[in-house]
Design brief:
Elements (H helix, E strand, L loop, with lengths): L3 H12 L6 E6 L11 H8 L4 E7 L2 E6 L3 E6 L5 E5 L9 E7 L3 E5 L6 E6 L21 H9 L6 H5 L10 H10 L13 H20 L36 E5 L2 E5 L12
Antiparallel strand pairs: 1-6, 2-3, 3-4, 4-8, 5-7, 6-7, 9-10
Helix pairs in contact: 3-6, 5-6
Bound molecules: zinc ion.
Zinc ion (ZN) binds next to loops.
Amino acid sequence: MPELAEVEFFRRVWMRAASVPVLEVQLHPKARPLREVDYEALREGLTGSCLESSSASGKRMCYKFSGNQWLGVHLGMTGELRVEAPGFIPLKHDHLVLRLTKSSLIFADPRMFGRIQYASGADAPPWWRDLPPDLLSPKFSEACVNDFLLRHQGLPLKAAVLLQDGFAGVGNWMADEILWRSHLHPQRKVATLTAAESVAIHAETVAVAREAMRTVAVEKGTTFAEPPQGWLFHTRWGKVGLCPRDGSKLRRETVGGRTTAWCEVCQPKGNKRA
Ligand SMILES: [Zn+2]
C-alpha cells in the first residue's frame, strides 16, 4: 500500500501535465474505485479544464482543475497514476483516462481498493476539509501526538501509529521504522507509554517522514530512491532479517492486523528505553 512518499511521488507524476486542457474523459463506470462518482458530471466538469494544482494529505491526494473542479484520488492497495502518450489504448485496469493534447493521464488500480472522488465548487469539498495534520507541518506537534495517543490508550503501539487520523501517511514499513527507532515494542499498549516515550514517537515519526520524502526524486519524477542505509526497512523483509543496530534476528508477527518486524534486544517489552 502506498505510504507518504509514494503518494507524493504519484502526485507529482500527473503534475507534469499541468496547464494543458483536458480534451476528453474516459472511464470505467462500473469499476469499484469510481463507485462514488457522478461520471456524467465528472466528464462534463473536467472536459476543457486544465490541471492547476494539487496537494497530498497522508495517503490521499487532490487535484484542482480550472473552473473549481476537484478530483480526489486514493490509491488503495495497488492504485497508481501514470502519464502515457496521447493515443494510448487503455489497459484492463486503467479505470480513468484524461486525454490531453500531448499526453494521457491514467489512474490504474488492479485490485480496486482505491477511490476516485469528484466535486465542483469554489470551496474544497467536504472530503478534502478537516484533514489530519501533515506529519511535516508545525501542527503535528508533541502535544498533538500526545493527545492523539491519550485517545487510543487500549491499542498496541503498532496499531496506534497506523491510524490515519493521527499519523497521516504512515503505513506498515514506516510504522515499524518509527517504533524500532524509538526503542519501543510494537505490542506494548499505548497506556504504558511514559511522557518521554511519547515525545520519542513524535520525533521519530517526523524524522522518518522527512527522510521518506527525501527519497522522492524531484527530477522528472520517474523513480524514488530507497531510505538511508542502516534503517530497519532494508532488513525487515529479508529471509533472516537482522537488526541493523545489533545484528539480532528480527521477530516477525502480526500486530494490529499487519505483519510486523521488531528487534527484541532494542525493543524490549518493558517500558524502559534501551
Ligand atoms: Zn536491535
